[in-house]
Write a structure and sequence with these properties.
The protein has helices at residues 2-9, 51-56, 69-81, 85-99, 102-110, 131-136, 138-146, 156-162, 185-198, 241-247, 309-321, 366-381, and strands at 15-17, 33-34, 62-64, 119-120, 124-128, 152-154, 172-176, 180-182, 202-204, 208-215, 218-223, 227-230, 233-235, 255-264, 275-277, 282-287, 290-294, 297-299, 329-339, 346-349, 356-360. With 400 residues, the protein is α+β, with helices and mostly antiparallel strands.
Length: 400
């Protein structure tokens, strides 16, 4: 929707094809954090030693289901290859270029729209109950600082002044003051859609099934019902982008990171900031509809049954952080992050079909990078030089 609205504002006639209503994908249940600080990839040095634990501990923050191991094994091998120190440094530079101005670009995208009401410019708190967990965070802190991210280290008294709702259980606090968060990701996406339609954009609730030629020099996207002629096509279908890219000649190692959340009622004294647990790798986010608890990665594909055991267990830990939080879960959700093994999205023209543009595979930074990616796509469609180097994000960077 960010791409569609940006292109429409750029003067293009735009049709969005999606089998779901706006906001019903991964954005429905994500943490809502505009995490411009997340320049660290999933595959950090030493991840290879963690793979056995991923298989043996289904309650860990990063787990793999045994049945999915044969399917995910090539992706894991590429993840390990991307975790070499030199690659991590290069990946973080690319992420910093894409994410660095994310909050400002988002503010510009939603300015004057209903979406403006959901964007909250407050920082992000990471609390650590032990020195061991805090020490484990040091490589990420140092990497973020090398990329220009502002990181503040606070003590317990500082935290009380910043976030009075939090219990005094943290020995160390990492505060990221320049992040923002969204109080309702699904409403934000719907606001983008409403603004897009009001500006003359069109939306069709259909599934794209292929591509073809409508006439000499004119392309088309085929759907379950009809074909849509076009000069350009943008593939921004999240976890469902891989088969569409393959139809256009590009094989990309896109896979699925499953993410869970639970919603609790808003307590009498809600937090003002998102708060993460450094030990247990979950985040508490205050939203319009309640308190969202989310976090962790499960590698199990699109079709395995949901397992809410881990995220439900986090409710008790969340209540230690926020003593006024209730016990009753109001709702639960499972969603699918479209993830590349090197933690870099695919952004750019299709190598074989230059009229098609790719914008998918953002993993944990899909919400953060949406507005920035939309600007890049608009530049490519208009034949303007993009503001960032797209080489690290090119679709053909993986060889099979």
């Amino acid at each position: 929707m960010a791409c569609a609205l940006t292109l429409r504002r750029d003067g293009h006639d735009v049709v969005v094809l999606d089998p779901q209503q706006p906001g019903e994908g991964a954005s429905f249940g994500n943490a809502g954090i505009i995490a411009n600080c997340t320049v660290d990839p999933l595959g950090m040095p030493g991840i290879v030693s963690r793979v056995p634990g991923m298989l043996l501990d289904p309650m860990g923050p990063l787990s793999i289901r045994w049945r999915y191991l044969p399917r995910i094994a090539p992706w894991l091998m590429q993840l390990v290859a991307a975790s070499r120190p030199a690659r991590v440094e290069a990946i973080s530079c690319a992420l910093a270029a894409l994410l660095g101005n994310a909050v400002e670009i988002w503010a510009d995208l939603v300015r004057g729209t209903q979406g403006e009401h959901y964007l909250t410019a407050r920082g992000w708190i990471h609390g650590f109950e032990t020195e061991t967990a805090f020490a484990a965070m040091q490589p990420i802190i140092e990497l973020r600082r090398r990329r220009g991210v502002r990181v503040e280290i606070l003590g317990p008294h500082d935290l009380h002044d910043l976030e009075p709702a939090a219990a005094p259980i943290f020995r160390r606090v990492v505060y990221l003051p320049d992040t923002a968060f969204v109080t309702s990701p699904v409403r934000l996406v719907r606001a983008l859609a409403d603004t897009f339609v009001a500006a003359g954009g069109r939306f069709a609730q259909v599934r794209a099934t292929g591509f073809g030629e409508a006439a000499p020099g004119l392309h088309q996207v085929t759907t379950e019902r009809e074909a849509y002629p076009c000069d350009r096509a943008v593939i921004a279908a999240g976890v469902w982008s891989r088969p569409l890219a393959a139809m256009l000649g590009s094989r990309v190692p896109l896979d699925t990171e499953r993410g869970y959340h639970v919603m609790l009622r808003t307590p009498e004294h809600p937090p003002r900031h998102p708060i993460s647990s450094g030990e247990r790798k979950f985040v508490i986010v205050p939203m319009l509809d309640g308190i969202r608890i989310t976090g962790g990665v499960e590698l199990a594909g699109l079709h395995a049954p949901a397992n809410f055991t881990r995220i439900r267990r986090m409710v008790g830990h969340a209540r230690r952080i926020l003593p006024g939080l209730g016990r009753d879960i109001v709702s639960e959700w499972l969603g699918f992050r479209p993830s590349m093994p090197d933690s870099l999205p695919v952004i750019g023209r299709s190598p074989d079909r230059p009229w098609a543009l790719f914008a998918f595979g953002h993993g944990h930074v899909g919400l953060t990078a949406a507005a920035s990616t939309a600007r890049v796509i608009a530049d490519l469609v208009a034949e303007r030089p993009p503001s960032i180097d797209l080489q690290p994000f090119r679709p053909d960077r993986f060889r099979f």
